[in-house]
Each structure stands twice: as structure tokens, then as C-alpha cells.
Amino acid sequence: MSKILMVVSGADSLTLADGTTHPTGFWAEEVAASHEVLAASGAEVTIATPGAVRPTVDALSLDERGGVPPGEAQRFRAYLDGIADRLGHPLSLAEARADDYDAIYIPGGHAPMADLAQDADLGRLLNEADARGKVVAALCHGVAALLSATRDDGACTFAGRVLTSFTDEEERQGGLGDSTPFFVESRLRERGAVVRAGAAWSDTVVEDGNLITGQNPQSSTSTAEAVLKALAAR
């Protein structure tokens, strides 16, 4: 049985480019759909957050204002309710050890930009996991969390790696636009990653060795399935 550490942001607000505060959290589909696929395979999924705080779901991810139809919102809400105990008692990232897991999986929502992108404990975990060839997966804005991992010389651990993320185009079309504190795609490019983006809002997954990334919420199920396929091939 595979053991997967799902790292979820603990942030409930994001400081925008103009200094104002914007409510945020994890994106419901990215946690619910991913967790459902992984758990249904028989994998043991442990949820971890910075400081073991209970993560907050972004209200927009369960609302038509966020582009989520009522039926889908109801389904995601029901699934999250079903794992409420796990979400309510997460492992602290500081206590997590890469050797205890076969894969690390990071869903998004804007929240990872507020904490995971700079989290030293996550950076340590990602460095350990990547050095051991374990599967490292991230989805949408969760790919910003890869920025937390740096080498001894200060370079991003994932510089030179091929990946995808929530694109600048998608941020402008259906995200925070120019209010965003930074554009994830652009920041990853600046830090040396090779970003291969699909069409806006397409189900796009990119694999580069042990690194698996998904572009947006529409890629949630495919990203989780790619992780399971990679684990089964080991």
C-alpha cells in the first residue's frame, strides 16, 4: 500500500499586490477530487499543514462565482465533509519525514502562495523526497510550493525541470489578475523551471521523472491518476 503525504496550505488570507487582504484557502476540487482518487486506490493519504492548523476551504471554490456549478460544489462539499476529521487533525509539516512516504502531493487554491511557497519545513521535505527519487506532485497554484525548495547555492531545487502550473493567462482570465502578489508561472520561470503550459483551462499534466504537475482544477483527477501510475510502476 502506497503512503502519500498530501500537503495542504493552512492560509486563510492572501496579501494582494496593493497591500490589501483577500480571503483564500485551498480549492475544494483539488483536495476532494485528488484525495478521492488516491484513497480509492487503497493508498494511505496523510494530510499535513504548516503548524498542524486546520485548513480553510476557499468559499469561491464551492460557489458559482468561482466557476463551480452547484452540483459539483455539492459533491465536493460532501466529500470534504466525509474527511473532515482528517482535515481537522492534520500532521504538522515540521514533524513529517520524506522517508515515511512514497509521494508528496500538493493541491492548490491561492493559499499556497501565502505560506507553502516560503515554508522551510516543506522545502526540507521536498529536497529529501526529490533526492531519494520519490514522487513529488503539485497542482495548480500548489506548484508555487516548489519554490520553497532550494539548493545550497540558493538556486531552486526544481530549476531546469519541466513542469506546468496555473498559468499567467488563467490568472488574468479567472484568477486575481494584476492583484495577484505574483504570477506563479512567471515566478517559476524566473527561478529556472521549464514551464510547459497547455491551453487555458485544459486538463494538462506534465511529468518529468519523479516530478508530476497539473495545470489547474480541471487537472485534479488526471494528476492524481498520474501519481498512482508512477507509484505502480516502481
TrEMBL record:
InterPro entries: Class_I_gatase-like, DJ-1/PfpI, Prot/Nucl_acid_deglycase. Residues 91-150 form the DJ-1/PfpI domain. Signal peptide: none annotated. SUPFAM superfamilies: Class I glutamine amidotransferase-like. The keyword Lyase applies. Gene3D superfamilies: 3.40.50.880. The keyword Lyase applies. Keywords: Glutamine amidotransferase, Lyase, Stress response. This is Type 1 glutamine amidotransferase domain-containing protein. Belongs to the peptidase C56 family. HSP31-like subfamily. Pfam families: DJ-1_PfpI. It comes from Nonomuraea indica.
